[in-house]
Amino acid sequence: MTIDSPTLGGRLQGWPPFIRELDATLSVHSQYVLSGNLYDSFLTPQADGGPAGLLPLRALLWETLRTSGASFMAVYDPVDGLQIISGGAGDEESTRAAERLLGKIKAEEKPSLEGLTRHLAAVARPKEDIRAAFVIDSASRIARTPTDLEPAERDFFRFCAKLSRTARPVRVTGPRPKPLYNPILWLVERPGDLPPWLTTDNENVREITIPRPHLGDRQETARLLARAFGVTDVETDEVAAAACDAFAEQADGLTLQSMIEVTRLAKERGVDLADLPDAVRTYKLGVLDNPWSRGHLRRRVLDGEKRVPERVIGQPQAVTKTLDILKRAVLGLSGAQATRSGSRPRGVLFFAGPTGTGKTELAKAITELVFGDESAYLRFDMSEFSGEGSGDRLIGSPPGYVGHEAGGELTNAVREDPFRVILFDEIEKAHPRILDKFLQILEDGRLTDGRGNTVHFSEAILIFTSNLGMYVPGRDLTTRDASPYGAPDRVQNITPGMSYDEVEQRIKSAVADHFTEVLNRPELLNRFGDNIVVFDFISAEAAHKIFDLQFANICRRVTEEHRLVLAVKGNALETLREWCTEELDKGGRGIGMALESHFVNPLARALFDRELVSDEKVTVTGIRREGSIVHLDLQ
């Protein structure tokens, strides 16, 4: 491809911003530290005004320096050694210029740090007016650690620091005759990979971060790649243009080089231009099978409208809203109102309300609906993440810390299986700094782990549970004493008997106050949006249904374990029912705890004293309390 060489007044118009920054400052900086998106391809204009082309970084740097009159560019990396890039194999003048400054370079020569020092000095302080550049690729690998240098490494970087201040500008005839430095370009993964004293307070060294491509770059690249599908003029083809825009949006977070790889993957699998988003999903996740595209999933969710209310009892509003959000996820319409929604999680739910009302049970029911196995969900008890540093468990420790190689529990699990339900239980107990990690997941559908790998959450359903809103800080402290620990008393915000509308309004208000006033994270609350699902207190009618269900489970377990037929006479059963459902504020979990205390424990005591015979019928004829101890009369 032919590269544009614009006049000095409009140099490099349309080229990547970081290239224009480098080009514009060659007269004042002798060294540059380039970090960030080093291994991408970059859009570069052509001289004839045609569509831009894509160049890797080395080629882009050379084309930039060549337009400034550089005769050659030397490139060193620890693997390939020293190479010379010039105008071409037939450009003898460039070859001679390189030999005059650096001497005869042997193929794949790997100079020592001492030899590299001589080459750098020859380029930065040339004895002749020869414009050139020196690129040190993979510079992060030169030092074992930038803060604990070996003697040879320390001497090398000391020399480079001094060289940045003693470099000599060079005048040459051509498009830029004014003095310019022969730059030394360090390519590093992170700026901190070089000794900090090399760049700190050193105005001769300029640090430039190469960003990932923005939407406009991805759209232009998608139009270039459309040629692979036989589309030569995207602008006149509305269908192709829409497909390219969808491809660019779905490729959010990817490099342009990754978009090239996605196109190759699509061609290999026989995917059309319109189906490129599916190829992006395969490229990101590494999974060919997409559970969300299975035809039976829609039928399962429709069946769930009957089965889930039978499992999560007494929560019709919460179940209906949850199933609506799930249907939206199945249809791929989550976040459809946003300009870019393709990379966000499939679904986000925030379950709030009294304890024991079915929040975790509903999460299991959703998992069973989608994946056929309620145990397939991934659960994190956020009370275990109350410390500021505990977030490393989720994404992995940063480089240099113990356990860095192991990665994070959350990121590893999602990388292994991106199609899953992830439950974050009691989210309000997590440290506020950990909550910040969810911003990127909820907005962009991705998270970078401690090893620098990107994990995508675009096919996951995220469920957050919380007991926020049950109690709120006391408002009128003049009539209410502070607690013994100096904190204001908490008052009950919602009580059994309130209408669902009032419970919902109070809990949502308390959740909003917690995120905005207590945590100062209103942006996180905005990411949840209207996906806050409020659970009501268990009603008396629902409590009886839960009691019957849990009592039946106990009888079935006795039959399975001991082949006994267990029965309870009417009066005893009604007494037990009354005892177990008298405290509805504890929810279904409270009913289960009461059943265990009032029935399972005395039943185990009574059966333990008997000789059990298979197929024997055991009948509970009476139940009575003596203090805190419950006794059963068996027949």
Identify the CATH architecture of the largest domain.
Answer: 3-Layer(aba) Sandwich
Enumerate the spans where pLDDT stays under 50 for 5 or more consecutive residues.
1-9, 336-341, 477-487
Please state roughly what percent of the residues sit in beta strands, choosing from under 5%, 5-15%, 15-25%, 25-35%, 35-45% or over 45%: 15-25%
Number of strands: 20
Helix content: 40-55%
What is the CATH fold-level name of the largest domain? Rossmann fold
Superfamily (CATH H level) name of the largest domain: P-loop containing nucleotide triphosphate hydrolases
Number of helices: 21
CATH domain class name of the largest domain: Alpha Beta
Give a short synopsis of this structure.
The protein is of the alpha/beta class and 635 residues long. Helices cover 41% and strands 15% of the residues.
3D structure, described in words:
- This protein has 635 residues and is an alpha/beta fold.
- The chain folds into 4 domains: 16-210, Rossmann fold (3-Layer(aba) Sandwich), CATH 3.40.50; 215-286; 295-534, P-loop containing nucleotide triphosphate hydrolases (Rossmann fold), CATH 3.40.50.300; 540-634, Helicase, Ruva Protein, domain 3 (Orthogonal Bundle), CATH 1.10.8.60.
- 41% of the residues lie in helices and 15% in strands.
- It contains 21 helices and 20 strands.
- Strands 5-4-6-7-1-8 form a 6-stranded mixed sheet, with helices on both faces.
- α11 packs antiparallel against α13 and α17 runs antiparallel to α18.
- The protein is elongated and about 110 Å long.
